């Protein structure tokens, strides 16, 4: 990669990640359908709907958010190292990232108040505040030690559920059923004011969870280490590591999600408590999600390395990376389309879709934002949300920091 050239892998990963997130969120908008014990997906639908539910549970649910968190952590360390390399004191660089995290929390608040309860900006804004303060300036060896500690804590947290799976005592842990996720999203609420109140309560819960989730967040700290090694910027130099990470991570992620997926579609007999969020299959599903998310990052890095060797990038690659460069704008745009069209307080289309149809709708929405991002890339324009965030973080004149043209 030439000096000053923006690396392909992080933007490619962010662009695909946005597609995976918007597909993964589709079940939250199916407010008229009965939901299963996990509360995430409907229990009805055609054979095609059931296939869509199976694939989402095994491949996407609780696998995309660790992917988002890894890329967030990677971007934090990229920004920190670029600032310090330019002569900015480490304390000032940390303060810059702290302002960025705080503004992400503010963006998330507005996002939840107006559109989407399941906002991830505030959760990861709070999480990045804590982890940035604790680990940005730590040595590489210290980071890896803490990755191991956090991974062990995550396993310990799921120990009862893992033992229930190992002994096949599937009803030993977990509640019989969870409240449907559509209730927390207020997607079925016809009163827009009442819906906003529900969304803000959900926002408060998720943002607060970010403050206590850091002990089981190895993926963010691992991203700090990976960014120092420039693994995504120089995938050719780390091809072996990326290959093993992709193979093992995705295998663990998919196998960990398989029991919950099979149980949901009725191909594996299990009590409702097992597939609840805190049940045996639910906890296994969540625990293995980090491995799956990191595995996806490795796949995107390997794809980017191959595309870079080919040299020329076609319009599809340019469009996907354009979305990645404007991931905040596209993420918010998805909600701006989804919520008014699908929610009961809007057009109410969520009552008429099945799982497969909703996935198709999500792909169309993502494609619309990809076309817009492609046009902005051709015009040399940054995304509006990125431009606003940059102005808010830096101010009119950067104090103790240098403006970063790759700031996202």
Compact summary:
The protein has 408 residues and is mainly alpha-helical.
Note down, in words, how this protein is organized.
With 408 residues, this protein is mostly helical. It contains 18 helices and no strands. The longest helix has 26 residues. It is globular and about 60 Å long. The mean pLDDT is 88.
Structural category is mainly alpha
Strand content: under 5%
**Average pLDDT for all residues:** 88
Helix-strand sequence: HHHHHHHHHHHHHHHHHH
Please work out how many helical segments DSSP would assign: 18
The count of strands amounts to: 0
Choose one word for the global shape.
globular
Query: Can you give the helix content as a percent range?
Result: 55-70%
Biggest sheet statistics: none
What is the first-to-last residue Cα distance?
20 Å
Sequence stretches where pLDDT stays below 50 over 5 or more residues:
none
Query: C-alpha Rg, in Å?
Result: 21 Å
Secondary structure topology:
Blueprint lengths: L7 H17 L22 H14 L3 H22 L4 H25 L6 H15 L4 H18 L1 H9 L13 H5 L6 H21 L5 H11 L10 H26 L7 H4 L4 H8 L1 H22 L4 H11 L1 H16 L12 H25 L4 H11 L14
Helix pairs in contact: 1-3, 1-14, 1-15, 1-16, 1-17, 2-11, 2-17, 3-4, 3-10, 3-14, 4-5, 4-9, 4-18, 5-9, 6-10, 7-13, 11-13, 11-14, 15-17, 16-17
Descriptive terms for the model:
408 residues; mainly alpha; 18 helices; globular; single chain
